[in-house]
Amino acid sequence: MRLHWELMLTLAAMMQLVASPVGAVKSASAEIARTHDWAMERFGDGRKAPLADPPFSFTYGGRPSSEFLKTWKVESRSHKLDNAKTERVVTYTDPATGLVVTCCAVEYNDFPTIEWTLFFKNTGKAATPVISDVRPLDVSFVRKTNAEFQLHYHTADNCTQDSYAPHVEAIGPDAAKQFACAGGRPTTGAYPYYNIEMDGGGVIVALSWAGQWSSEFNRDSGKTLRVRGGQELTHFTLHPGEEVGSPLAVLQFYDGDWIRAQNVWRRWMFAHNIPHIKGVMPSPMLYMCSNGFFDGLRSNLEAEKLFIDRFAAERIGVEYWDMDAGWYPCDPAVGWPQVGNWEPDTDRFPGGLKAMSDHLHSKNIKFILWFEPERVTRGTWLAQNHPEWIYGGAEGGLLKLGDPECRKWVIEHFDNLITTQGVDVYRQDFNMDPLPYWRGNDTEDRQGITEIRHVEGYYAYWDELRRRHPNLLIDTCASGGRRNNLETLRRSVPILRSDYTMDPVGNQGHTYGLSMWVPINGTGLYMKGAYENRSTMAPIYGIAWDVRKEGCDWDLMRRMVKEWRHLSKCMMGDYYPLTPYSLEKNAWIAWQFDLPEKGEGMVEAFRRDDCAEDSRVFKLQGLDPKTGYAVENLDTGKTEKLTGEKLMGDGLRINIADRPGSALIAYQRSR
Asked: Rounded to whole angstroms, what are the CA distances from 622 to 263, 564, 570?
């Protein structure tokens, strides 16, 4: 699919390129103006009160907010946060009970994007009536044409081959579609990112909550689609002075092709969401999995040094070293899941992990260290010394991050470990479902509060770590990619996008689907052949090889790393799927990453085990039709010169003799 540039305005009416390190997918001024008008109608600006119904809903004392909000005192204000963002705040005050509902929105001036969060505060002297069914996202879209709404959505990370699989279906008259995550981790069971096509354009919808959420898409019998979403269960009173927040809702409006919209989303992610360190976005990362992967995650200092030195001697160019679970004292019979003893095991690491991090730093390698503070097992230091901080007590369970005293200890203790052990990347895992603990500790009139406090504590913990360590990068890992809601991704990067890693077909599918939403993501592989390694190449690329064994093909590894460096640079640009999504063994699958500002890009193609076709033609996208490109096959070294018009019109033929087999094609604008 070519970009629908014919739907864009003339060059004079186009906005300037977004200040971003990626390509030239542009947001039209008309899209941004429409977003501004939508925001003004619902949030006002301090001079002009909101004219339209608010984009949220809730029930208060058994009555829906649509019945009474207009009778409450309403105030609005706005101010510029910076050159790219304007904050719009609307408050609704109940004169009878003192409940204040604040909708805090951020409008982006360089993207057609608006986001908002709800806050409820009891300013009265008594407990409020019950607040329930809080839906920070409650918006309706009306079609102008007869073409039906098309809902694009993705499978979540369920540690399966089909994690991140894309889907599309029409939402016809009187139809309904519901989604909910599973177990309290937000990107397993269902994925809270959607793209709704309508009227030659559409809207991207996202819901961000690091807990249990649900969403629904309901069509009426006419041309209206209502979209609602929020924390799945809310039914609580608020005590005097108490305040709670809601999930974050995001809308991004677009004209033209839905794939173009996904690239505008990618650009927005790069520009405003992916955490920057000292103003610089993280570069693609090459990391090595430590010796512990080959010794049941119970490594020691000398073994780690052996691996580090061998990789350095072979000039692999590893930039990060991942010390995963098991570096703390744990019974060998139980293994690494015995979490709650958060000190280095000095029997295996005399003096702690500082000697290892110093060794890494002497070779210009950064240190990634794994933690899992929220899960506590029986018999560990935390369970024995602070059972009052654990949902589950001395028997173990979920740490109470919502408890201020507990969170203070967590911040101080892990801050100290980061400092004293020389940690460069803090990796936080979460291998449990928190929902039963949250709901099991709510009273009838406080359902949802335990979850809210935990989510607030989780964000506050990370924010304080980042404040104390401005150079610290956080890696989010929750049994793979099960906690990648937007607000988590604003604080971290997912170095491991799924625990389903060893299957090349699954990895191909993961890249195909996840690239639409999370542009910086990673995976890893025990080093095998070119087909398997290319299947796992992502902006964050992990490799593992037991250097103690004979037969390590270091030439292959160096070749794979060289290819990855070229490919990962392009992965920071625009993304185009070139085939339908498929996990079938008789299929081809291919995609393109493009850096139009630099006039270069890559095509990655795979021919699977049972595929009879040894060649396919792919129509590239996003190129300049009048420009010539030097197109190189990295396997054969052959280069041909083709125009953008030919590559997008007639297409590029790729031959792969092996099955399974792969091809990497690089192109560069002719000079």
From this structure: 11, 22, 13
